[in-house]
Design a protein that fits this description.
Phosphorylase Kinase, domain 1, 22% strand, Immunoglobulin-like, Transferase(Phosphotransferase), domain 1, four-stranded antiparallel β-sheet
Length: 485
């Protein structure tokens, strides 16, 4: 796609990046003669109201967030039906690029997380959860100070005080909390999890989990224990491992309650004290400390007090670490299957019953309100990975599925965990597939002769219910693949 010469009054200079959601351009604002970044919704996506609605939501949310740790927005506009917004151009690159240059020391990591944690705490107080924290979305200015960008996949928390639920969850598999990956209720602790993953990557130079497919990574976040970073970097303080494992706890109730609490714990691991996380602003990449450098303390009474605090923290850290190490690692409850890429499952069939001549019916007929239960089926995630669209879904364990008209798409079972099958689907951009998900009724051998041949025994209600049609016990789950080119 050709780069436009102008967007509104802005003169476009080059393309900075392109993703499944939007394209970002570097431009000049002639009114003040400064460089800006412009995020534009691609024209080919305008036919999909979901993309337009999501982009409009991002504009409104980002415009409402004003904080020293969040990339500021300057302007909002619409160019020939294409919405866009103008934001500050961050000249210092991304945290992702910085990680590629080498691992961070604990001190540098703490300084950066300190400031990012404040911005997230501010957005959480505003009722906004980021939900897509990753190194690509942490940008630096020319002073080396970090800023949070791309609140495009965040949602406003419900005013009733509940968390977020529902289908169509969006995020990046490598940094996604278990509850977000499964499409269940989330709150600010989901961002705490994302920060924990980022800390692990900053300190080790790699992500905590890897797999052949994005869905494989998601499954590991749900089922596998947090990797031991001390096995990779033995020179790290044990408290750093505690911070990571607490941030990435599978159960959000066991994580730090806020990003501020996480930042304080990381400061203790790095410097021996919590620091002034709430109000301090001197954090960033510009003051990066070489790995292995330690902090020196003064002498006298003040030094003794500080040493005493450090010793107390060390004792507490020792017991926390001991408890952490004594707890058995949680074992995966699901096992990956070897299902073919496109699962073709025959329609549900009922267990045959003897002919009427040989049946003695003695169970009562079910009341009219007794029906066959349908399986739980939901879309939990939709995203682009390497310009390839993926949709992740869960269906009840034991349920079958097939796609009569896949249109070049395909779905497969990645794992079975906690009573659900985790599916991944992919295919051409904008493909829409109708998946038939069924839970055929089964009858125990001991109950085969309890009903006539035109009925099936319902063991739950202990009565005979009429044999259902082929579509009974089935639901249709619509799989919509995004445009990622």
């Amino acid at each position: 796609m050709a780069i436009p010469e102008k967007i509104g009054r802005y003169i476009v200079k080059s393309e900075l990046g392109r993703g499944g959601m939007a394209t970002v351009y570097l431009a000049n604002d002639p009114s003040v003669d400064r460089e800006v970044a412009i995020k534009v919704l691609p024209r080919e996506m305008l036919h999909d109201p979901q993309f337009r609605s999501r982009f409009d939501r991002e504009i409104k949310m980002v415009a409402a967030l004003e904080h020293p740790s969040i990339v500021p927005i300057y302007d909002v506009g619409d160019e020939d039906g294409q919405p866009y917004f103008v934001m500050r151009y961050m000249t210092g690159g991304s945290l992702s690029s910085a990680i590629e240059k080498g691992k961070f020391s604990v001190q540098d990591t703490a300084r950066i997380i300190d400031k990012i944690a404040r911005g997230l705490a501010y957005s959480h107080r505003k009722g906004i959860i980021h939900r897509d924290l990753k190194p690509d979305n942490i940008l630096f200015d020319d002073n080396g100070d970090p800023f949070i960008s791309d609140f495009g996949v965040a949602k406003l928390t419900e005013t009733s005080g509940g968390g977020l639920t529902g289908s169509g969850v969006i995020g990046t598999p490598a940094y996604m909390s278990p509850e977000q990956a499964q499409g269940t209720e989330i709150d600010g602790r989901s961002d705490v999890y994302g920060l924990g993953v980022i800390i692990y990557q900053m300190l080790s130079g790699q992500q905590p989990y890897s797999a052949d497919t994005p869905m494989g990574v998601v499954v590991k976040h749900i089922t596998e224990p947090v990797p031991e970073i001390l096995s990779l970097i033995p020179t790290l303080p044990p408290e750093a491992d505690v911070v990571i494992k607490t941030s990435m706890a599978k159960d959000k109730a066991n994580r730090y309650p806020t990003t501020i609490d996480l930042a304080k714990a990381l400061n203790v691991a790095a410097f021996g004290h919590e620091g002034d996380v709430t109000f301090s602003t001197n954090s960033g990449l510009g003051t990066r400390v070489p790995s292995g450098q330690t902090t020196q303390f003064g002498r006298g009474k003040t030094g003794l007090v500080i040493v005493g605090i450090v010793l107390l923290v060390a004792v507490i850290g020792f017991f926390l670490l001991r408890n952490q190490l004594l707890v058995p690692d949680p074992q995966p409850t699901g096992t990956a299957t070897t299902a073919p890429l496109l699962a073709t499952v025959p329609p549900p069939t009922l267990t045959p019953v003897p002919t009427l001549e040989t049946v003695i019916s003695f169970a009562p007929s079910c009341s009219a309100d007794v029906t066959f239960p349908v399986p739980d089926a939901r879309v939990t995630n939709s995203q682009c990975e390497g310009k390839i669209p993926y949709v992740f879904a869960t269906i009840s364990e034991g349920a079958t599925f097939d796609i009569p008209d896949p249109q070049g798409g395909a779905c497969r079972v990645e794992a079975v965990t906690e009573g659900r099958q985790i599916l991944s689907c992919t295919g051409p951009d904008f493909t829409v597939m109708d998946m038939n998900v069924c839970s055929p009724p089964t009858v125990a051998n001991a109950d085969l002769n309890k009903c006539s041949s035109d009925a099936t025994y319902d063991s739950t209600n202990q009565c005979c219910v009429a044999v259902p049609p082929a579509e009974a016990g089935c639901v249709i789950l619509q799989i919509k693949l995004k445009g990622c080119k």
